[in-house]
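A note on notation is needed here, since sequence and fold are reported together in a single record. The reader may check this reading against the record printed directly beneath this paragraph.
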Amino acid sequence: MNGMPRLGIDCKRFAFLKAIPLGLIGLLGALVLSWSGHLMAQTTDPLLDFSPVMPPQGEKNKLPQPVVSWLVRPDAAQYCEQVKDQDGFGVWQEGCAYWSKSKPSCTIVTTGKTTHSQMGHLFILCMRAGEDT
C-alpha cells in the first residue's frame, strides 16, 4: 500500500451520518461558520472593553459622592459641550459625561444603544472629573 500507514477508523461509530442528507450537513457547517464569524466581529467592537478596571482611589476622585444621572440622546458624543451649567466634560467613544464640582453631580450621556463598558468608562470619567489616572 505505497508505504502509507492505514488509519484505523471504526465506521460503525459514524454510521448515523449516512442517514443525514449532505445538504443538511452543509447547512449546519455554514451556520457554525457564520456564528463564529459573528463572535469574532463582536470582539473587535471598540465599545466592548473587558480589561480590568481598578476602582478610583480616594485622592483621584474629584467628585466626592456625586449624584449621577443618565441621559439618552442620539447626539450623545456632541451634546456635553453644549451644556451651560457644567465644570467640565469628557467624551469616550459614542458618549460623554459632564459634571459640576459644586453640587457635586455628574451626568452620563449615551445613545439609545450602549454597553456596560461604555457606562463604566463614562462613570470613572465623572468620578475623576476628566483627569487621567
Q: What stands out?
A: The chain has a mean pLDDT of 77. Strands lie at 67-72, 88-92, 95-100, 105-110. The radius of gyration is 26 Å. The helical segments are 22-43, 76-79, 116-127.
